[in-house]
Each structure stands twice: as C-alpha cells, then as structure tokens.
Amino acid sequence: MKLERIHNKFTEIWHSLEKKSPKPLLARKLIVVDYKKFEEQVFHGSFQTRKKIAQSLYKGDVYLLKKALNKKFCEKLIKGAWKINKKEKKGFYKIKENCPNFHRLIDYKITKKYSSNHIKHAFYFFPWNKDPINMYKKIYKKWRLFKFLGGFKAKQYEENTPKDGIIDRFQIVHYPAGAGWLETHNDPWHNQRVIISGFLSERNKDYKTGGFYYYKKNKKILDCDYQIQTGDMLTSYATVLHGVSQIDSSNKINYNSSKGRWFLGLYSNDSDHIKKRKTTMSWGKKFLTPELPIVNNKLKLLDISK
Ligand SMILES: [Fe+2]
C-alpha cells in the first residue's frame, strides 16, 4: 500500500501523549541511530515501537540520524547556494501567493526584525518554484519520514501554496565563520511536531568551534556537534530548547567567504496569508547561548554584545 494511504498511528499516539502532559522544554539525551534503521522503525515498526519513539521524543530525546544524506549531495547544496549568492541579488519576500525563491543575509542589523537573534545567510526555496539546485525530489524523500513521524500524511503540504495557509519551505543556511549563530529558542509544533535539521558540514573539518546545542535539566548543555558528521540529520520535538553557538567566534567576519557551517532546514510554515502567524519563540535571555565545545567542563556563555 502507498505510504500516503496508510492510516498514521502516530497521530493518535501524539494526541494521547499531548493530553497527558505538557510539551517538553528541555532535552533529555542524544540518541544516535542509523537513518535507515530509524526510517524502517517509523514506517514499518510495530505499534509498540512507534509508541516508544514518540514517548522518547516527548520526554525530550534528540535523535541524531547517521548517514541520511549523501556527502556529494551535501556539497552540491552548498555549491548551489553559493552560486545563487554570486549570481542573484539578495532580497526578501513575504510568503504570499507566488512568492519567489530568495536569499537574505541576516546580519547584526536585520536580525532585529526577527523574533530570535541570529546571524545567518539563508537561501529559501519553495516547492511551487523552479528547483535551481535539483534537490526537491531527493529531499522530499527524507522529509516525508518526519511528516509521518509527526502524525501527518507523508506528503502533507507538498502541493500547497501560500493561500492554503501552510507551506513547505526548504532552507539552506550558511552560518558564516566569525559571526553565524542562533540564540536559544523553540519552534512552533502545530504544523509538524518535530524539527528537521540536515548537516552539510562538520566541526573540526569545516569550522573549529560552535555548533548545534540543546538545553538539558539544570542548565546543562547537550553539544550535538561532537557526534555530527556531514550527511547526518537530526530531529526532536519542536518545543525543546535549542540554538547554534557562534561559529569560529575568534575569526574575523567576511560575508564574501563561504567558510563556516552549512545546514539544511526543512519546515512547514504558516504562510503570510495567516493573520496570527506562529513563528519561533525566543528564550535567549533566560537560556544564554554557550561557547562550544565546552573545555575542561567549564561552561562559558557567549558574549554577543560585540
Ligand atoms: Fe529551531
């Protein structure tokens, strides 16, 4: 039977969990598993296996899914985005009907327009537009797993356009060395429940310091980049607090260089046709961004006043 026709048991599992206890805010532990194995469990596992996965995510566990994307494909995404940066002007568009693909450098000034402080160069792509990097098909194959896991149809929203209220947005992100970071926040869960990260670069190869983190109990930090390699993907319940520690803070920023950390973000957003659009919620003042990696067990918090 085709996946999109299968009754998704995750939907009822989530409803029962969400009725019983509040949504998770803090991470519990990092679970490292091969993408292939996880995919098998999500799509074809028994009811008990699925329930276990959902329960664990709802307790705040973070799943690092190894070898999800081919390394050549990751390179192609970076090269493709960088070519767009060279060829096409930066811009910004609200997600309304016929919104084009665009890219935007969110620097110290522009970040003030957003709900969370961050510095990044984001390349946005929408499924109703051309696919300049030839990536939609390959990425959708992965994306469907997370939609299904979140209790939605595997192909939910794929045909939507902004007037439908919820749309799929592909994002390739460059966190430039010497500047890129994202303060502690959580994400809306109503359209997808689990967040989806794809890692296109890795610490100690492409950058030395910084990376993806979660907040655990007692203000402890889960430093994910210890285990992340290019091609891995990651998921957690959307309300668990996370962020990106500044990449190579000691470097001098050069926005014309592609050095730094690259990431693939997949999100089903409310479009700008929705009046009270739900977006990211900042927790950055209470949960400061740490410097990573943590050296000699000493947690240093990032000074972003510079
Ligand atoms: Fe996020």
Description:
- The chain contains five helices and 13 strands.
- A hairpin with a 5-residue loop joins strand 8 (211-215) and strand 9.
- The chain is 21% helix and 25% strand.
- It starts with 8 loop residues before the first helix and ends in a 24-residue tail after the last strand.
- By secondary structure, it is an alpha+beta fold.
- It has helices spanning 9-20, 35-44, 47-58, 71-87, 136-149; strands at 30-34, 62-66, 102-106, 118-125, 166-176, 181-186, 194-199, 211-215, 221-223, 233-237, 242-245, 260-270, 281-282.
- The mean pLDDT is 95.
- Fe (ii) ion binds next to loops.
> Which class best fits the helix and strand makeup?
alpha+beta
| N→C terminal distance | 56 Å
Low-confidence spans: pLDDT under 50, at least 5 residues? none
Strands, count: 13
Count helical runs: 5
Protein topology:
Layout: H1 9-20, E1 30-34, H2 35-44, H3 47-58, E2 62-66, H4 71-87, E3 102-106, E4 118-125, H5 136-149, E5 166-176, E6 181-186, E7 194-199, E8 211-215, E9 221-223, E10 233-237, E11 242-245, E12 260-270, E13 281-282
Parallel strand pairs: 1-2
Antiparallel strand pairs: 2-10, 3-4, 4-5, 4-6, 5-12, 6-11, 6-13, 7-10, 7-12, 8-9, 8-11
Helix pairs in contact: 1-3
The chain binds fe (ii) ion.
